[in-house]
Amino acid sequence: MRVADPHVVAVHRSASHSFSKFAEDAIRLVPGLGVEGDAHAGATVRHRSRAARDPTQPNLRQVHLLHAELFDELMAADHPVWPGDLGENVTTRGIDLLALPAGARLHLGPSAIVEVTGLRNPCVLLDRFQPGLMAATLARDAQGRLVRKAGVMAIVIAGGEVKPGEGIRVEVPAQPHAPLEPV
């Protein structure tokens, strides 16, 4: 596998609502629910603050994907963080996750498919994990708009096992494309 090929770097889950997630040899994605055994799995919202407001909302955050290129950037800026530290389920390499349109589908390994629903909105928990980390995951584009770099959220369309080293294929929806917004 060439380094430029889009692939899964690492997979993680946690049965508790801990900030970081634990590395696994494989995770199983369950359609309409998320990562089997993960605290955020469910058809309705599992994020604690969102569930407190309205526990009947659909769970658009079943799977958190984060690009390994962000870890490279953070390490270069003296923020020692590794896959799983920021709470993602799937760490990728070779895909510009933040540039994907809403509704893009990622085929992970031989059978799993997730549909991108939006951006992860960085929060103050990043600074509690490591001072200055929240600011390091935010930027401004050439027009001065806020860029959230903490990955994307997705729902599970087709289930299956996902392992590090497996390829990723991107399926972009038909035009017009909707840009990703925080979910």
TrEMBL record:
Residue ranges occupied by any MOSC domain in the UniProt entry: 21-171
What SUPFAM superfamilies does this protein's entry cite? PK beta-barrel domain-like (SSF50800)
Q: Which GO terms describe its molecular function?
A: catalytic activity; molybdenum ion binding; pyridoxal phosphate binding
Question: In its UniProt entry, what is this protein called?
Answer: MOSC domain-containing protein
Q: Name one Pfam family in it.
A: MOSC
Residue ranges spanning the membrane: these are none
Annotated PANTHER family = METAL-SULFUR CLUSTER BIOSYNTHESIS PROTEINS YUAD-RELATED, MOSC DOMAIN-CONTAINING PROTEIN
Top-level taxon in the UniProt lineage = Bacteria
